[in-house]
Amino acid sequence: MTDLLIPYYEHPSDRPAEWDAIIAAAPRLHGVVLNPASGPGDAPDPAFAEVAARLASAGVRVLGYVDTDYGRRPHAEVVRDIARHRDWYRADGIFLDQVGTSRAEFAYYQRLATAAWGAGCGTLALNHGTEADPAYARIADLLVTFEGPYASYTRLVRRHRRPATGARLCHLVYGVPPGVDLTETARSHGASVHCAVPGRGRHPWGTLPHTVKHPP
């Protein structure tokens, strides 16, 4: 079962060995979030295009990162970034970040989902970072219902239920101590996809998951 989603936000030219390790872990990956410049950037990045092609050749789903600013970012800007990820990096799908959680923002994201499908995206992931209105499960393939530090994750008591629509749940956890495997813990909370990294602070997603073999 492929249950590991990797949001790795480092440039391939700076961390080639780490990207090699991610590609080597292909059989265990649900997908990789590609984030060249807090989105696709203003022009194609050849290094990220090469990595995206290698991931695709290894059978790994590539999700292009796009920020939505909790529904405040103009629709046209988000759609532009979706198109750029598809055109420049041949992304299989889109990872929308900073996604609203209430029914009030749902129409905004429903329009984006329609645009993503129209652009040929096969997978739509919504990163709420916490639980959201059940309506979102109708438009997404993957819902991130937890993003936060390990200390908070260990206090997560209420189990997240898998939506009846079939959308999968994902938990993204950082500050995870060495030797800790969160696979079963995530599943006990209803999440069949997860990521656990040691990174902390403002940029935890510049570190590899413990379950991926780290370069020497």
Question: Helices and strands in order, then pairings?
Answer:
Elements: E1 4-7, H1 16-24, E2 29-34, H2 46-57, E3 62-67, H3 75-89, E4 93-97, H4 106-118, E5 123-127, E6 142-149, H5 150-153, E7 168-174, H6 183-188, E8 193-196
Parallel strand pairs: 1-2, 2-3, 3-4, 4-5, 5-6, 6-7, 7-8
Describe the structure concisely for a colleague.
The protein has six helices and eight strands; from the N terminus they run E-H-E-H-E-H-E-H-E-E-H-E-H-E. With 216 residues, the chain is of the alpha/beta class. It has one domain (4-196): Aldolase class I (TIM Barrel), CATH 3.20.20.70.
Q: Provide the succession of SSEs.
A: EHEHEHEHEEHEHE
**What value does the average pLDDT take?**
94
Largest sheet: 8 strands, parallel
Number of strands: 8
CATH topology-level fold name: TIM Barrel
How many domains make up the coordinates? 1
Order of strands across the biggest sheet?
1-2-3-4-5-6-7-8
Q: Please identify, by name, the CATH architecture.
A: Alpha-Beta Barrel
Pfam family, one: Spherulin4
Protein name: Spherulation-specific family 4 protein
